[in-house]
Amino acid sequence: MNFLENLNEGELDSYGRPKGSVIKGATVYRTDDKGMTRVQKSGKTAEMKNYMEKLSATYGWVFGRIRVDPTDENTVYVMGLGLNVSTDGGKSWSVLGDLPSTFIHDLIIQPRDNIIVIATHVRGMWAVDANLVNGGRKTGGD
Where are the domains of the chain? Predict the structure, then answer.
């Protein structure tokens, strides 16, 4: 199976190097039985498949981490080139705006205060109000 796909010649990756390929199969699956079975959630349409393939360039093995909101199982975050968020359980994705253009290394979702703390590559730490993502859900506090 060929996991690489040629891109347009002359494109540069996030480090300014010529892009030669992207990794196919950048897909989010969901399990409700500790991994015994999995259901594909992302990449079911051509548009979303293309979006997922380019979300971490060829560095998905480092930056393709996933977090699920502890108070809303349908809000899912995938770290990559920017912070990618789905509010429909992984069917569609968009980049969470107003963050610097860089790799996202990690994030913690703090449900009590409804804050997402984000660690970026060279651009520091960011705290984002989760209400911007989840439509103002009730926080986990008292």
Answer: 4-134
